[in-house]
Specification:
Layout: H1 20-41, H2 46-49, H3 53-58, H4 65-86, H5 99-108, H6 111-124, E1 129-136, E2 139-146, E3 157-163, H7 170-173, H8 177-184, H9 190-198
Antiparallel strand pairs: 1-2, 1-3
Helix pairs in contact: 1-4, 5-6
The structure holds manganese (II) ion.
C-alpha cells in the first residue's frame, strides 16, 4: 500500500509565494487522490504494490496492460508530488559554489541562464504537466513532460521539479503562470537539489 507522505513543513510555510489554501488542496486532496487511485489500481497485484513507486514507473512496459495507464498517471502523480514537496522549503537558500553549480555553469552558462531556460520550459508546457532538471548519462538536462509523466520513465533522475498544472497555482495566480514560476524560485530548496544531484 502506498501512503501520502507528510509535508516537510506546515501548509502555510511557503507563503506568500505559494498560499496555504493551495498547499492544503494540492497535498491533501490532489496528491492524496493519486495515492488512493494507485492503491485501487494495484489492489489485485500485491507483488506490484510491494514495489517502490519509482520502480513501477521506471519500467512501464512490464506493468500489465490493463493497469498500465493508471500506474503511469497515478504512480507518476504520487512520485512527482513526493519529490516536489521536498525540493521546496520556507528557509530561503541560494545555490552555493560546488559540484552542482559547476555542472549548471558547464551546461547552461550560469545560474541565471539555467533559471531562464527552465522557466521557459515551464511556461512552454501546453496544458498540464511538469518542468524538470534531470540527471542522465549525458549530464544535466531541462525537460518538460505532460500530465504526470515522469523523467524516471525515460531513464533520467529528476533533481528539480516544477508542477505547472493549474491546480498548483490557480487559486492565487489564476491564469498568471509566469508570476507563479517567478515566485516559485524563492522557495526552491537548493541544498536538497544539490543532495539529489550528488546521490
Ligand atoms: Mn500537482
Amino acid at each position: 500500500m502506498f501512503t501520502l507522505p507528510d509535508l516537510p513543513y506546515p501548509e502555510s510555510a511557503l507563503e506568500p509565494y505559494i498560499d496555504e489554501e493551495t498547499m492544503k488542496i494540492h497535498h491533501g486532496k490532489h496528491h492524496a487522490a493519486y495515492v488512493q487511485n494507485l492503491n485501487d489500481a494495484l489492489k489485485d497485484f500485491p507483488e506490484l504494490s510491494a514495489k517502490k513507486t519509482e520502480e513501477l514507473i521506471a519500467d512501464l512496459e512490464v506493468i500489465p496492460e490493463g493497469i498500465r495507464t493508471k500506474v503511469r498517471n497515478q504512480g507518476g502523480g504520487h512520485a512527482n508530488h513526493s519529490l516536489f514537496w521536498t525540493i521546496m522549503s520556507p528557509s530561503k537558500s541560494a545555490l552555493k559554489e560546488g559540484t552542482l553549480m559547476e555542472e549548471l555553469k558547464k551546461t547552461f552558462g550560469d545560474l541565471a541562464a539555467f533559471q531562464e531556460k527552465f522557466s521557459a520550459a515551464a511556461m512552454g508546457r501546453f496544458g498540464s504537466g511538469w518542468a524538470w532538471l534531470v540527471k542522465g548519462e549525458d549530464g544535466l538536462e531541462i525537460l518538460d513532460t505532460s500530465n504526470q509523466d515522469s523523467p524516471i520513465s525515460l531513464g533520467k533522475d529528476p533533481i528539480l521539479a516544477l508542477d505547472v498544472w493549474e491546480h498548483a497555482y490557480y487559486l492565487k495566480y489564476q491564469n498568471r503562470r509566469a508570476d507563479y514560476i517567478k515566485a516559485w524560485w524563492n522557495v526552491v530548496d537548493w541544498p536538497q537539489v544539490e543532495r539529489l544531484f550528488k546521490f
